[in-house]
Fold:
Amino acid sequence: MRKPPTPKRAGRVRPPRRGAAWSILASTALVTAAGVAAASSFSTQLAEEFDTNRETVQTGIDHTTEAFEDGEMNILVLGSDARDGEAQEDQRSDTMMLVHIPETRDEMYVMSIMRDLWVEIPEVGMSKVNSAQSHGGYPLTIQTVEGLTGADIDHMVIVDFDGFSDLTTALGGVEIENDMAFSAGQANPSYYPEGTIRLEGTDALRFVRERKAFTDGDYQRVKNQQKFLTGIATQVLDSSTLTNPSKISDMVSAFTPYLTVDESLDAQTLVNYGMSMSKMRASGITSFTIPNAGTGTTQGGASVVWPDEEELENMRSAMENGSMDEYVKELEKRQEEQADGATDETGENVTEEPGVDAPQ
Structure:
């Protein structure tokens, strides 16, 4: 794994205008999937619009080694609770996803990282993964995720909340399969019935950010985010979108002003990626949550999510040797078996809060 330079306290680099995590889902699809469309549909004017309206930030990523040079590309996608004028060291990353694209370039693995995951932060020690940014800005966040996953991160994307509604509108809504009915929002709440639903605007935002409606909180929220990401990717990669320059233009125009990316991710780079990933389809996108051993409390009293070190090592090996498909299938199988074994005689699940004590 690449060893980045020792992190320093980040300067007051301009953050996204109003950081919010939930719209990172859209950026994952837009930066990768719309790159496919870019190869054939980005006009010069649209490329200039992207480069002009995006925000860039220093990340500490070594761009002397190009993405895919080592056979894969990894993109860290995140949102933060930044506010206008707030320095990187005053922020915390709220939601984090690692997008892994293997050498074949026709598959994509989107790994959600629980924000309370208890990890080693370089030169800081053990802490929640989302606190890395408050200790050392984006460079330290990248170092921490690289240490956790074993991935060499090639690009980083941060998204501002306000662009999210506009993107779902530009797509004409996003269709997903909702596995449980719930309501979200205090004023004029949105209701989401079980089954196939179409999300757009405020309803989409509430769907991906809600956690208090669920007994397992962030766990179900992450599942809903993954469902929504799949829906967005399906919409973006649909032939009716890829062959519609007007629709692509609407997407880019709606969302680009709310993107913050590393300094090397410009329109031409997206076009190049799009050309190399022309075989990418929604069916090739797999979402899962980075292995963990449930929730618990540290000796200091912090509520955290414990990492599953054995499974994390298996995941790192799978990324390195290109066997992610087999790994994810085995992971899902084991998780289903664990869920079946954690059901008591009444048929009620008894694993809402696994792991109440710190591991020995």
Notes: Residues 24-161+244-313 form a domain with the Nucleotidyltransferase; domain 5 fold (CATH 3.30.420.590). DSSP finds eleven helices and 15 strands in the chain.
